[in-house]
Structure formats: C-alpha cells, structure tokens
Amino acid sequence: MKTEISCGPAFALAEISVPAGGSVRVEAGAMAMMRGDISITTSTRGGFMKGLRRSLGGSSFFVNDFGSDQGGVVGVAGALPGDIVETTINEETPLLVQSGCWLASDPTVDVDSKWGGSKGFFSGAGLVLLRCSGTGEILLSSYGAIRPITLTTGETMTLDSGHVVAFDESVQYRIRKAGGWKSMILGGEGIVTEFTGPGRIWMQTRSATDLVDWLRTRMPSNSTSSNSNNS
C-alpha cells in the first residue's frame, strides 16, 4: 500500500495509490476523495457474524474495498481532527486497535473485534478493540496527534483509556482506576490502562471522551430549553 500523508497532525489526509488490479480496504464513511479509475465494493468481509463483531467493536458493520483496473488514488480521513500514521503488521505481530482508530489497510489484513474484557466494559473504560492480523500495511487515525512508543520487556506505561490508539498483541494490558475514589471523583482522573512490554504502543494526544464531556457541559439542558420556549 503506497500512501502519502499530508495536512497533519491536526487535519491529516492519507492518499492511497491503488495499482492496476489492486485494492485497499477502508472503514465505511472514511473516503474523502477519489481520483482516476476507482470502483467500490461494499460487504461485511467475513459474513454476518464478523460484521456484527466489528460493529460491536465500534467499527462499521460494512467495509468498502476500493479497487482499480487501471490505477487510481483514494483519499481517506478520520472522523475527528487529528493525525494518521501507517505501520506494518505480519503474522507474528497482530495489532489491537481502539474502536474508531482503524482507517484503512491492505486487503490481506483481517480486521475483527476483540472485547477488552468484562472488567474494562463494566468499569466504563470503553476499551473495545479491533484485532488486525495477517500481513500488510495499516492506517491508524486519531483525535489529536499520534505519538508512537516502544516498551522494552517488563517496562510499564499507563495511559488514560481515552488516549489509547493501538498496541501490539505482545503488550500485556490491564484496566484499573487511576487512584482512589477521591482522585477519581475530585481529581478528574478515572479509568486508565496499564501496559507492560515488550511491544509498540500508539497514543493520541487528545481524548474523544473528554471532548464529549466538555460539549455536554456547554449544551443547554432540556429544562433550560423548555423554559426558553415558554417565555
């Protein structure tokens, strides 16, 4: 997958060159532009159950394969302002990707859901993951800039769960509270994910969860709207 990334890190756009007879797999709704001879095929890629697992993992039920007989270009972008990075995976290095951060990949890369575990789900961490396996290139998108980090064997790192983009399957992780209940309620620090190497991690400098919470505090409540209408 030959890719040119521009306009980053705030508003990144990835232009993927599709060779004659080739194709690229893209998250539904991520296409921003097309040039040249490009056709689109929409499917669940793996059947109903695999599409359902992807949708439960925060990705779309469907994926789009952009193919070309003569060669063309597909431009893709994330849903939120942020960065795009390209990385390579193989059979020995599957990648676990936070829901919403998988953007596109070679058709030889299989994208399936992997639940972050009941502890993470019931704690509200929302760490639902997509497991990307196979061999090929993959594009990751973020909210904010992306910072790659490599952990050595036994090295640990803790991230707010909203800042997780992706990590190698070789990296062990567990979800826990940032501190005690006082820190959680008064200090604004909630659920975090602790990683232990070896392996690669990609983090984003902003959290979409924090953005939603910030917007919620500034939106008029239903009672306020009702009072305004009655005035």
Query: From N to C, what is the helix and strand string?
Result: EEEEEHEEEEEEHEEEEEEHEEHH
Dominant shape: globular
Structural class: alpha+beta
The tally of strands reads 19
Count of helices?
5
State the low-pLDDT regions, or none. 47-58, 118-123, 181-188
Counting structural domains, the number is: 1
Q: Nearest-angstrom radius of gyration?
A: 19 Å
Kindly report the name of the CATH homologous superfamily. Answer: Mitochondrial biogenesis AIM24
Strand % is 35-45%
Main sheet overview: 6 strands, antiparallel
Q: What is the CATH-assigned architecture? A: 4-Layer Sandwich
Strand order of the largest sheet: 5-6-3-10-13-8
Give an overview of the whole structure.
- It holds the Pfam family AIM24.
- This is TIGR00266 family protein.
- This protein is an alpha+beta fold.
- The chain has one domain: Double-stranded beta-helix.
- The protein is 17% helix and 45% strand.
- The chain has helices spanning 48-56, 118-122, 181-186, 208-218, 222-230, and strands at 2-6, 13-18, 23-27, 31-36, 39-43, 63-67, 72-76, 84-89, 95-98, 102-105, 109-114, 129-134, 136-141, 146-151, 156-160, 164-168, 172-177, 191-196, 199-204.
- The strands form 4 sheets. The chain has a 6-stranded antiparallel sheet with strand order 5-6-3-10-13-8, with no helix packed on it.
- A hairpin with a 6-residue loop joins strand 1 and strand 2 (13-18).
- The protein is globular and about 55 Å long.
